[in-house]
Structure formats: structure tokens, C-alpha cells
């Protein structure tokens, strides 16, 4: 269950990062509220996950999910243009996240 909590925490991290962009510096109330709710839920599920999982695994996986998810949100929602080299490094992030999970023993 801790791994599911960690995944949910990472997805909420993507949510708050995306709604932070959409809030335009906290000038749009609905997106500002969504950002704060996303932050709270992201930290809540991360805290739940770290009850069982070591922080040395939880934190990098949480930030990795958030990073990759935010990159994808930027590309698909905001039409960010990434170079082939950047995509290579995104792939390396994904491999790193999977590698941490697979080799963790949890």
C-alpha cells in the first residue's frame, strides 16, 4: 500500500505544479486553491508512504514522478518544446526511478 501512496503523492505533485502554472502567480483563485490542495495531498500521501518506506527511496521516487509528470504536462498542456537530448535525459530519469524501485528490496 505504501507504494500506491507514493504514486498518488507523485501524481498530486504533478497536479500542484501544473495548477501553479495555471494560477499565473496565484492571481487566479480556482487554480491557486487547486495548487494548495494538491500540495497538501501530495505531502499527506508522501508522509503516509514514509511510514513504511525509507526516505532514501520515497523522496527521490516522489520527486522523480513529479519531475517526469511535470515535463509531460508542459509538453502536452503548455506546448513546451523539448530537444531530443532533453528527451534522452527524461528517459534516464524514468530508468532511474524504475531502478530505485526494483533494487530497493521493498
Summarize the structure in short.
Helices cover 81% and strands 0% of the residues. The protein is mostly helical.
Question: What does it look like?
Answer:
This is Multidrug efflux SMR transporter. It comes from Lentilactobacillus terminaliae. The protein is an all-alpha fold and 106 residues long. It has one domain (2-103). The chain is 81% helix and 0% strand. The protein has 4 helices and no strands.
Total strand count, please? 0
Total of DSSP H or I helical runs spanning 4+ residues:
4
Residue stretches low in confidence (pLDDT < 50, at least 5 long) are: none
Q: How many structural domains?
A: 1
Record the SSE blueprint:
Blueprint lengths: L1 H21 L6 H21 L5 H24 L5 H20 L3
Protein name: Multidrug efflux SMR transporter
Organism: Lentilactobacillus terminaliae
Amino acid at each position: 500500500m505504501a507504494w500506491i501512496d507514493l504514486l498518488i503523492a507523485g501524481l498530486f505533485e504533478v497536479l500542484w505544479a501544473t495548477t501553479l502554472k495555471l494560477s499565473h502567480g496565484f492571481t487566479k483563485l480556482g487554480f491557486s486553491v487547486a495548487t494548495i490542495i494538491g500540495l497538501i495531498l501530495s505531502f499527506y500521501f508522501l508522509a503516509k508512504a514514509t511510514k513504511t518506506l525509507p526516505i532514501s527511496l520515497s523522496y527521490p521516487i516522489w520527486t522523480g514522478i513529479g519531475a517526469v509528470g511535470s515535463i509531460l504536462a508542459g509538453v502536452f498542456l503548455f506546448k513546451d518544446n523539448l530537444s531530443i537530448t532533453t528527451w534522452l535525459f527524461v528517459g534516464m530519469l524514468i530508468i532511474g526511478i524504475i531502478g530505485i524501485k526494483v533494487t530497493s528490496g521493498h
